[in-house]
From TrEMBL:
Required cofactor(s): Zn(2+)
Entry EC number(s): 4.2.1.1
Protein name according to UniProt: Carbonic anhydrase
Species per Swiss-Prot/TrEMBL record: Latimeria chalumnae (Coelacanth)
Single GO molecular function: carbonate dehydratase activity
Length: 368
């Protein structure tokens, strides 16, 4: 998104830094760079993550992201399904900008893409980006029950009322991010290939390339009604606690070749391979994690289609049980009403029989 584009380039890691940190003005150079321009705050140097709170106050606060989602402690609740609007960009004439900002690969998105139904307000898309590990080392930011996934995609949105990602970044309700875990499957994912096939064109830090628009909805799981929800933060400095996180339960599968492309193609300065660009999990500090789906099956594996089928079967079974229970109740009630009615009819019949009897005195007839 002049200055706005620079802002987005710096913050694509999970979202954007805002204008101030610990009461002082933050310049673009201060965010992730020293005076020489060399990166000092990137995810690639895990030891630096422990120092973030020294320079950025919010990084040491109690509502930080990412987290390890513990399904056993999550609360099942009635949350609406996510309903993206305007995500199909195939009819859009303007191409999309793909870029390597030295922290991740980012695709800038038009703000005509929105999400609303599951949120209290309208959010507009700004960009999407990825987090990954290295060969044999998974690199998702969020974890589930201690498991880290090979990679994770974040689709970043800002609250419409703030007008831009930059203005929304440090507001408590400013951002909404959709997170999807990526796993390795047997087939090439055609939607992700529309992105990954251009990674070589942005292999050097600072590279940009225009790519044809496509249906962004294809990057998300089929079932958008199954997700975890919690309040958190940007996963890079200045770590503003401004994000409503939606992390989908169902994963997306990409091929091993596609994952290898993500892990090995992009470079930082000095020709270093860009990898392991994730922040370590942060403590919940008493925050609640909500789940929009049935959590009764504690042993199911994240993203396992069988788990979803199991939940659906359970739901259907519960529905059938309710239906049969109602039918049984109605039948029993009808039977009771019938019996009571029949008894009343019998009692009435007996009374009527007795009231119609005319008493006659017995007489004897004498024969001559």
């Amino acid at each position: 998104m002049g200055n706005t584009l620079l802002f987005i380039l710096v913050v694509s890691q999970v979202l954007l830094p805002g204008p101030t940190v610990a009461g002082k003005t933050v310049t673009q150079r201060q965010i992730g760079e020293d005076e020489s321009g060399e990166n000092k705050k990137s995810h690639e140097h895990n030891k630096d993550q422990n120092q973030w709170s020294m320079d950025y106050e919010d990084c040491g606060k109690t509502a930080q992201s990412p987290i390890d989602i513990m399904t056993g402690l999550s609360l099942s609740t009635a949350l609406l399904s996510i309903k993206p609007e305007g995500y199909d960009l195939r009819d859009q004439e303007k191409k999309l900008t793909l870029l390597n900002n030295g922290h991740t690969v980012q695709l800038n998105l038009p703000d005509s893409m929105t999400i609303h139904d599951s949120f209290e307000q309208l959010y507009r898309a700004a960009q999407l980006h990825f987090h990954w590990g290295s060969k044999g080392e998974p690199g998702s930011e969020h974890m589930v029950d201690g498991k880290r996934f090979p990679a994770e995609i974040h689709v970043v949105h800002f609250a419409d009322k703030y007008g831009s990602l930059k203005e929304a970044a440090n507001k408590s309700d400013g951002l909404a991010v959709l997170g999807v875990f990526l796993e390795v499957g047997s087939r090439t994912n055609p939607f992700y290939e529309k992105l990954f096939s251009y990674l070589q064109a942005v292999s050097e830090e600072g590279d940009q390339h225009e790519i044809p628009p496509f249906d962004i909805r294809g990057l998300l799981p089929d079932h958008l009604e199954r997700y975890f929800r919690y309040n958190g933060s940007l996963t890079t400095p200045p770590c503003f606690q401004s994000v409503t996180w939606t992390v989908f339960n169902n994963t997306i599968q990409i091929s091993q070749d596609q994952l290898s492309q993500l892990e090995n193609t992009l470079k930082m300065k000095h020709q270093q391979i860009l990898s392991q660009n994730f922040r370590v999990p942060q403590s919940l500090h008493g925050r609640k994690v909500l789940a929009s789906f049935n959590l009764s099956f504690k042993t199911r594996r994240m993203g396992d289609p069988g788990a979803e089928a199991q939940d659906e079967l359970s739901s259907r079974g519960n529905t059938l049980a309710i239906i049969f229970g109602c039918l049984f109740g109605i039948t029993l009630l009808a039977f009771i009403i019938y019996v009571m009615h029949h008894r009343k009819m019998n009692q009435r019949s007996k009374k009527e029989t007795h009231s119609n009897v005319i008493y006659k005195a017995a007489t004897s007839t004498e024969e001559a």
